[in-house]
Amino acid sequence: MPNFILHRLKDMIPTLFGVSLLAFILIRLIPGDPAMLLLGERGADPEVYQAMRKSMGLDQPKPVQYLNFLKNAVQGDLGRSIVSKKSVTREFFDRFPATVELGLCALIFAIILGIPFGIIASVKRNSFFDYFLMGTSLVGYSMPIFWWGLILIIIFSVHLGITPVSGRINVIFDVQTITGFYLIDTLINPELIEEEGFAPFFSAVRHLILPSIAMGTIPLAVIARMTRSSMLEVLNQDYMRTAKAKGLSLMRQVLVHALRNAFIPIITVIGLMLGSLVTGAILTETIFSWPGIGKWLVASILALDYPVIQGGLLFIAFMIVTINLTVDFLYVLINPQLRK
Amino acid sequence: MEDAIRATYKRHPLLEFFRSLKKNFGAMAGMILIIFFVLLAIVAPLVAPHDPTILFEDALRLPPIFSEGGTSKFLLGTDDVGRDTLSRLIFGARVSMTVGFSVVFLSATIGSFLGLLAGYLGGKTEWFIMRAVDILMAFPSVLLAMVVVSIMGPGLMNAIVAVAVVATPGFIRIVRAEAISQKSKEYVMAAHSLGASPARIMFREVFPNCTAPLIVQISLGFSDGILNVAALGFLGLGAQAPTPEWGTMLADARAFISSDPWMVTLPGLCILVVVLGFNLFGDGLRDALDPRLKGV
Lengths: 340, 296
Prior knowledge:
The structure holds 2 protein chains of 2 kinds.
Chain A: H1 3-29, H2 34-39, H3 46-55, H4 62-74, H5 88-123, H6 128-141, H7 145-159, H8 182-188, H9 190-196, H10 199-235, H11 238-245, H12 250-288, H13 293-302, H14 306-334
Helix pairs in contact in A: 1-14, 5-6, 5-10, 5-12, 6-10, 7-10, 7-12, 8-10, 10-12, 11-12, 12-13, 12-14, 13-14
Chain B: H1 2-8, H2 13-22, H3 25-42, H4 44-47, H5 85-121, H6 123-137, H7 141-152, H8 156-183, H9 186-193, H10 198-206, H11 211-234, H12 246-253, H13 261-289
Helix pairs in contact in B: 2-13, 3-5, 3-13, 5-6, 5-8, 5-11, 5-13, 6-8, 7-8, 8-11, 9-10, 11-12, 11-13, 12-13
């Protein structure tokens, strides 16, 4: 394993500690008293209040509280939500598949369109296509997605009436959660298929279209721009001239010889985007009432549900740190120059 | 002969830079958009037909003039409590430009300072600053900004501070990378051997040579800042009524999405155009400042 990965692993540990400490401190800076909030109306009785603080560990000194939080977090216990009274970990994993399903669809949408756009722009460099595609990409890149989602709703749901406005699936279908991904759950349940046929599946697909477009627009623009610049660099290489001199078709030159070599920066940029997809999820899920992590966190922040905010921050930061490390690792794997 | 003279005569780098920028269509388009919105922000009270906070109770949710039922008194219609949309959009430019400038000013100042320290001093200082950067970057920007706002309370000022906090790591990384590459250059060694203090070398020698990527990041920082503060406004954590902020206007208009779609369309379009302007300009700047990309 190259040194650089070892270095990254070594730096990751203090980062994760820092992340947990920051989540812990931020939550304690939010004005208000969690014990009071949890007690609600009954909070007036001082004895009950003191007992509550004690049971929540709030009577301990702050460093002890932090160590307890860390100890519990490592064991997967992030406390209970003030609003729903359910375990934060449980709530997180209940909603996680919805966000992953949406995120994957958005990413697939972005990749399927972004890479061809970038290729066309680079091959037809400085043509009308190039200017048009790159101009459109920059518009996509500048898009306020909370507005874009609403515009999509106005066009496709309000005017054309072809897509639903919100949610994951039509409420008339009772889908049992098996994997948590509705696209899969609607297909692998024999009873549901017998009763409803493929209607639930298509309902899930239709619900996914607009949120995926909204969430995938910025990644699409980033991928298209990265593909173009990465392809341009490759297209100038000597071996491309050789490929052309050998009489290979343009298709073969581009897809086999150029794209393969242009892929490394494209994959890197896709990997690094996974983190910013979470920001996309927060806004997209809020607009489309998508029952995932993003909408849950927004609601928790507005309701000052401390344990959920703290746990959610920790989960997401942990996820992003891990994803970034994996991207670095893959980068070394696919780039022979870094393999030693 | 003339060619030979021209070849030996080197233009001032700044002039060279402007020439390069002028040839870039995107950058010029971006600059025109930015200038337009800056001017609009300055002269807002002169060009806005109405006070953006006045409620015209007899004119609720009027459509724009080009739509059926619109009147010339309210060119772009009114919102749900009867405020003139055009005036609010014009004053919104003022809010957005202030937001962009404040976010960039805060994050670029603090970010450059810490980035210089990290890059030039290296060692433990660098390790601590870069771990702080890693930690901040482990949180999605809007999420972290939302938590910071909920600590300080919702409002435009607090949203600006929160977004500036989130934007700072980007500046730190860019200035640090540039400072590291400048550190080993001869002019730094020369200054060092002349007995210049580290502080003097950092701020008077190294920093001016870090400005090229910094300027690009500043332009892109404007667009990120405006976008993030508008997102906070949209989520109810940014500017509060009656401040004419585009993101907040969008949030208020959401309830009328099927009955009055133009109420949703206009504020978002303004955000998009401003952000696009800064991105176009930033892209052009990068091409003009980075010789490696020239002509690509």
